[in-house]
Design brief:
Elements lengths: L1 E2 L8 H9 L2 H16 L12 H5 L6 H23 L4 H45 L6 E2 L2 E8 L10 E8 L2 E9 L3 H18 L6 H21 L9 E9 L4 E7 L5 E4 L2 E4 L22 E4 L5 E5 L1 H4 L11 H8 L4 H16 L7 E8 L2
Parallel strand pairs: 1-3
Antiparallel strand pairs: 2-3, 3-12, 4-5, 5-6, 6-7, 7-10, 8-9, 8-11, 11-12
Helix pairs in contact: 2-4, 4-5, 6-7
């Protein structure tokens, strides 16, 4: 299961509540008309009618503003007719002013509605791109129960430079979690490059070493092509942890390319899985010797494995304190990965006050018997 921050459309209850507020501007119009008619001749409350269309944008759109404005203009005509039997110059000016103000408000509401439609369309395209690039993980892969969460640093963002994927290859499950250096569209392009190479290479290479070498070759080649086309990709790289979980052995095999170490959780004991030979991030293999030798760690039935990006451990509270993932995970452990990522997400947002300085991704795995 994949969790993320979503924007849900208003339901029927919110629609009724919003239109129930229409009683305020309409009630104001009625009150002004009654008081103005009953007031002494030297008292004129008609100018207060402009408040009715001015309040309506908080309730509805341009059509509703035009409707309330038309009622306010009609009310101004009623006041002038009832008080004098005809419209005086003062009332004519008030009617004209009210009409102009209503027209201006309607125009601003129309522009706001058009902007909102554009934002909705962009959000739809963003979510569609996210589903293509960052596909949701299944809740069950072989002997593994899986849950994931992605939290974007930007409130309206749906995808960024963090990435993860899983592939089922015969008698094993292969996974990758990574973090692209940089932000914006270039980070999304690099993430798409890595994920495409992983999904293809996971079925072509017999072992994890060959898969990681293939990822390094694909990323280096892709970044070189971006550099020649003018994109600023010379200093780009991707940290990644590449894993393999065989079905018939209670272990995991891990190659870590500059990524934060996964956490193994068993009986409230948290153990970071540090590899003996950390490799350079993907895209930098030509600058350092690489062996891509996989380390083996235990993963027995009932054990949890937590994969995460640095957006989690680098999240700060108001005092600048980093999120203590290793300490917090023992109090957040649950019977299933879905509950774990729910609790971790809520605890992380509570630590940061609801906003993150960087994208954050987490995958929780539990090996079943």
């Amino acid at each position: 299961m994949r969790l993320q921050q979503r924007h849900l459309p208003p339901g029927p209850g919110s629609w009724r509540a919003r239109h129930g507020l229409l009683a305020f501007p309409l009630g104001l119009i009625v009150a002004v008309v009654v008081v103005d008619i009953l007031a002494p001749p030297e008292v004129h409350l008609g100018p207060l009618l402009v408040a009715a269309p001015a309040l309506t944008p908080a309730i509805g759109g341009s059509r509703l503003v035009a409707f309330v404005g038309a009622i306010a203009v009609a009310a101004q005509l009623v006041i002038g007719t009832v008080r004098r039997g005809w419209l005086s110059l003062n009332h004519e000016v008030q009617v004209l002013s009210l009409t102009l103000v209503t027209g201006v408000i309607v125009g601003f509401c129309y522009l706001r509605e058009r902007h909102q439609r554009q934002l909705t369309q962009l959000r739809f395209v963003s979510e569609a791109a996210q589903r293509v690039v960052l596909r949701p993980l299944p809740s069950r892969i072989g002997p593994l129960e899986v849950a994931s969460v992605y939290l974007a640093a930007e409130a309206e963002a749906q995808i960024g430079g963090d990435l993860y994927a899983a592939a089922r290859t015969g008698g094993a499950t292969r996974l990758i979690i990574g973090d692209v250096r940089g932000k914006g569209l270039s980070a999304i392009s690099d993430a798409s490059l890595v994920l495409g190479a992983f999904r293809e290479g996971a079925h072509q290479h017999a072992d994890l070493s060959g898969l990681t070498r293939g990822l390094e070759a694909s990323v280096s080649r892709g970044l070189a092509e971006l550099t020649t086309t003018g994109d600023d990709a010379e200093e780009d790289f991707i940290t990644a942890a590449v894993l393999e979980v065989p079905d018939d052995e209670p272990v995991i095999r891990l190659i870590n390319c500059g990524h934060p170490p996964p956490l193994h959780v068993r009986d409230q004991q948290v153990t970071p899985l540090h590899t003996r030979q950390p490799e350079t991030p993907l895209g930098l293999g030509e600058f350092a010797p690489t062996s891509y030798a996989a380390d083996t760690f235990p993963l027995e039935a009932g054990d949890f494995l937590l994969l995460y990006t640095d957006g989690v451990i680098e999240a700060r509270d108001e005092a600048g304190v980093f999120y203590p993932l290793g300490d917090r995970i023992t109090s957040l452990t649950a019977d299933d990965p879905e509950t774990l990522v729910h609790r971790l997400r809520d605890d992380l947002l509570a630590h940061t006050g609801g906003s993150l300085g960087d994208d954050a991704a987490v995958i929780a795995l539990k090996r079943q018997g």
